[in-house]
Amino acid sequence: MRVGEQPGDCVSAVDNPSASLYEEAGADFFAGWMDSRLTMSCALWGPGSNPAPDLETAQHRKLCAFADLAGVRPGHRVVDLGSGFGGMLDYLARERKVSAAVGLNSSALQCQESLGQDLPAVDVRHVAYQNYTPAAPFDAALSIEMVQHLAGPADFAAGTHIDRYRDLLRRVREWTRPGAGFAIGATVVVGPKRRSHGEHERLLAELQLTGLPPQLADLLYAADGLWEPLRVETHRDDYLRTYDTWIESIQGRQDAARARWGKDLVDGILGLIRFEREAFRTGDLSAVFLALRRIDNPV
Fold first, then answer.
1. What is the Cα–Cα distance from 117 to 226, expressed in whole angstroms?
2. DSSP 23
3. Which of 96, 109, 132, 205 has its CA 20 to 30 Å from the CA of residue 17?
4. What residues form DSSP beta bridges with 185?
5. CA-to-CA distance for 97 and 119, rounded, in angstroms?
6. Residues with Cβ < 8 Å from 102, sequence gap 6 or more?
7. Residue-by-residue pLDDT tens, the chain, 299 positions
């Protein structure tokens, strides 16, 4: 694996969504309550006839399903925007046998601790996506739970939030080959109004996390003329169970975690997870997986 820098990667808080207190805690912190690949997103527990027995299995199912949504094949060049601790990159290189798995991440610590360090196909770039230029076109692209950090309260107030999403979609289209697939996973607002907007914003700010969840319609509108929607999946129940599993694990280690990483970080993360879990329970938030196909003659 190569961990690279690109010039000009210093950007504003909203443009640099991965650099936060939450993610700079390091792999050891998340290893105490996540799966072995440190997958910081919704796991897939179903179907009911064959439920996943544990978080490890459920997260592996999600990685498989997400790569399928993007149309990943052996030998492909694939980019993962907001690659976290490299769980998807590791999966793509080891199990999907891609020729290149490039991760873009603005967290320097996550880049250094990223999985796949022993794999020549994995290349982690410490760079904001706005400043990235690929060495060669990609056959597929993925982004899991990065999109909801692109637009902050000021963008929603000014009506520029869709511009944020469209800029990402436009750039990824420019990086990819004709017919490429792009799979996006995001937490989205359900319904026309945001509830408890201020409380969610406060909890995110305490952990130095930026951005607010979009509506599904915002993402589809932003993709219009650039990417053809092929499939839309929602996984609210899956995320509820994922949150419950995380909460149980954190609570079982809460005192030891506070002693090592501090009360503010541990309690802040637990508070955010509980808040979002309740929003998923009431149906105010949901998890969406989008499968998009590149429009080769954009409007």
1. 34
2. G
3. 96
4. 144, 289
5. 11
6. 77, 78, 79, 80, 89, 123, 124, 125, 134, 138
7. 556 545 334 332 334 444 456 655 788 889 989 999 999 999 999 887 889 999 999 999 999 999 999 999 999 999 999 999 999 999 999 999 999 999 999 888 889 989 887 899 999 999 999 999 999 999 999 999 999 999 988 999 999 999 999 999 999 999 999 999 999 999 999 976 655 567 777 887 777 777 889 999 999 999 999 999 999 999 999 999 999 999 999 999 999 999 998 898 899 889 999 999 999 999 999 999 999 999 998 76
Evaluate whether 97 touches 10 at the Cβ level (below 8 Å): no
Alpha carbon 145 to chain centroid, angstroms? 3
Alpha carbon distance 193, 77 (integer Å): 39
Q: Using alpha carbons, select from 168, 172, 142 the residue that is nearest to residue 155.
A: 168
The sheet that has 77-81: what strands, in order across it? 2-5, 122-126, 100-105, 77-81, 138-144, 176-189, 285-294, 227-234
Does the bond joining 47 to the residue before it have cis omega, within 30 degrees of 0?
Answer: yes
- Cα–Cα distance measured from residue 238 to residue 70, given in angstroms and rounded to the nearest whole number: 20
φ/ψ (deg, to 5) at 258? -60, -40
Residues ≥6 apart with Cβ < 8 Å to 134:
79, 102, 175
Identify the residue whose tokens are 């999966």: 91
Helix (H, G, I), strand (E, B) or coil at 64: helix
Residue 24 main-chain phi, psi, to 5 deg: -80, 0
Q: What is the DSSP letter of 188?
A: E
Which residue type is seen at 122? V
